[in-house]
Amino acid sequence: MRLHSLVCLIAWLAMAGGAVAQSRVIVIDAGHGGEDPGYYSWTGHPEAELSLRIAQRIEARLTAHGGLDVRMTRSGEGGLSDETRLAMANAAGADLLLSIHADVASTRASARGLIIYAVSDLARMQVVARTVELGLAANRRDAGRALDERLARERAFLTTLDTALPEDLPLVIDTGRGGLFDILMDAGTPALFVEFPFLSNTEDAVPPPLTDAQIAVVNQLADAVIAHYAQD
Ligand SMILES: [Zn+2]
Fold first, then answer.
1. Segment 154-199, tens digit of pLDDT
2. Residue 51's closest CA among 66, 41, 65, 61?
3. Of all residues in the chain, what percent are helix, strand and coil, respectively (each to 5)?
4. pTM for this one?
5. Domain spans in the chain, listed from the N-terminal domain onward
6. β-pairing, 171-174 with 114-117?
7. How many angstroms separate the alpha carbon of residue 127 from the centre of ligand 1?
8. How far apart are CA 162 and CA 83, in angstroms?
9. Opening angle at CA 230, ends 166 and 116, nearest 5
10. For residue 139, how far is its CA from the centre of ligand 1 (angstroms)?
11. How far is the CA of 3 from the centre of ligand 1 (A)?
12. What's the CATH fold of domain 3-229?
């Protein structure tokens, strides 16, 4: 009897789910953690700590807005393998996986902006082969189709982001080096690798709390996610 009730409930939920649009799933991945501290700022603060703090800030802003299903890969200091991070994004059916990192800017101009790595068509053969190898697609044709859809969705979000950011905030979208990151190459969902160049110098370095200028950049990224994905 109880089993029957449960089956009815599941059937009802499935029907209700059909009538109501599902919230888009945003997976926020704080890079590094555990035995992998990432980079260090001049003042000795590890990237792992900063990436978690930025990720938590994005999570809080998205959750406060509502209309999104927001998940974190890690919410504590412990580290995760890329495989685990990707498995979590796949299991959640992520509409977007944002892998959050902090870096030392390579040029002065980008020191206060955002650097986003993405895979490009240049990495196509490799991504398609890996997608099949990982069992995310049955064959190369399916993998190619899935990759086209993924890249289109990533580009659409990047267009929204570019429009949403203030004109004077440098946005570097680097598809050339996107192929260097396993988390992008092996992703079965739209995925972007976001570097906040907050480790750049002693002034901007990590010590808590983040500066107002840094918080503004984090919020601008979160607001672009809301503008692109949140349902009213
Ligand atoms: Zn990193």
1. 999 999 999 999 999 989 999 988 888 999 999 999 999 999 987 7
2. 41
3. 50, 15, 35
4. 0.86
5. 3-229
6. parallel
7. 21
8. 30
9. 45
10. 32
11. 47
12. Aminopeptidase (3.40.630)
